[in-house]
Amino acid sequence: MALHRLSFRFRHTVTHVRSLHASGCGRQQEAVAVASEPEPFSVFRTQENDPACQSQNQIGQYYTLPSAHIRTLFPHGLPRRYQHQAKTFNEACVMVRQPALEVISYLKKADYSQPSLRYLFYGLKGSGKTMSLCHALHFCYTQGWLVLHVPDAHLWVKNCKELLQSSYNTSRFDQPLQAIDWLRNFRITNEHFLSKIKTKQRYSWTKREFTEEGSPLGQLVDQGISRVKSSSDVVGAVMRELRTQSGQPDSDFRLAVAVDGVNALWGRSTIKKEDKSAVEPEELTLVYNLRKLMTSGWTGGAIITTLSQTGSLYTSKSSYLPQELLGEATEEMSTERRVSGSKVIPLVKMLKHQGVRQCATVTHHIASNLVHNINTNLQEKCAMLEKDCLVMAALRASLSLAVCLLMGGPTLAKNEAPCQLSKLNNGFNTFLKRHVRSGTPSSLDQNEWETYIKNNGGCDRPTQSFLQPDDLDRLKAVCSSQGGAVYKENLCISRKPFTFVTVRSQPGTCGIWSVQRETKHVILACDKLSNQCLPVHFEGNPLNTIPNNNAKGCTSAAAPSSKMTCLWLLSALLVVVYCYRH
Q1: Nearest-angstrom CA–CA distance, 284 and 165
Q2: Inside any domain, residue 89
Q3: Same-domain check for residues 407 and 427
Q4: How much is the pLDDT for 577?
Q5: Range of the domain at 296
């Protein structure tokens, strides 16, 4: 992607220049016009750890992210693989990329009395979009901005464990677990702002609970964390307060809204309603309020986003352009935006870049000719090395995958139909231990259930369902043609409803917030153990799904798919090719 073209295309659109919380490095440069000492030669690292002071000279180098900033700015916002690397090396370093510097330069020069500008990172998978977003966000944080960060918007439109109908608007759905998690991290990042910002209106949550006008924003956040039922609406109220107060004369903060995978807000979801139709993203309370924040013309801040194909639903793996991932929402997002393609500078390119820069510092004519010849030879060798590295890396990655498929393919493959040979020898016993226990409380008292779970284990599971031991034979019958019907994959749904107790607790704790007796058709994963088809997993049924009368019986297992066989054959071919080359 031609980054220089993007830079020239958008640079002329910034018409108003204004100093933005001038950093210490900028003031020193203005006050003292003295040539600084040359920085020691370093291919990998830069000593300039302040994003506001970084320039083109640091492109391709890594700067160290302070551990204190990681704990507060990114309590859950860094990619998982990056977190593992930071833990392994006991430090976190971020590469200085041209797109991130470009966005930071726009943030320095923007006129914040005008509607907020929207910046969009896009590029191929693995090109550094998320880390460029984190780099720009680190700049905002060091400049004293209030940060509203959504690290992965795709998680809000799929794999929802708890979906409740909104009490505020019955046409929308709440996601209390995601809302609580986001509010906790928002509090960690912006702790020093929560006591200064006051609410501009009164919010009623129940007949007895409300937040008065003029209350600290922290009180509003605490309401959502402590009251799960209203947590999604509290997220909307927080976003509304920040949207309306940002840029006003009496506000003393600038707002940075950062969303990784913004295309999820205008895509499709995998969440289903009771009639098995898909829930549209705008029907989710969290997505609805975030979309309002993304598209309204509030002032006093900036919106920084990325497009992400990873996790994007029902889109081609090769798609990465805004028109492909945003679709019709491209026009909705395009007003006054700044687009910056993102890329990774590999190690070889870093060496080439540093070599050219260091050669330019040689002034003696004899040494200059010698250095020029050496550098030309080095550039040619680097070009050849890049090609070889690319081919070998692809071949070795394919070899690793091939070995895994050949040696562990049968273990990794998931059953595609019920009553196939189980890969979990203790699956049935684990099912009984988790869901068919003796001695469970007979009442719905939360204190009794909290004591029971603490004594018997299960505090790490936010949602648990307990069935009666007297129904064990009926549960086994669900994995037969008489008592169950095929639901999907290896899941079977009972032909008759069961009565059971569902206990919901705060994630990571035993704090019970809901104990409910439910009567539903249960969905169980059925696998073959000791020549008998038995339940090995309890699947939630939040939409109260009922069995299809035309569905096959549970023991009508489909034949194993030939997909893995094809993969094993291709894997064997890759191993042969690799061995032949060596």
Answers
A1: 9
A2: yes
A3: no
A4: 53
A5: 3-341
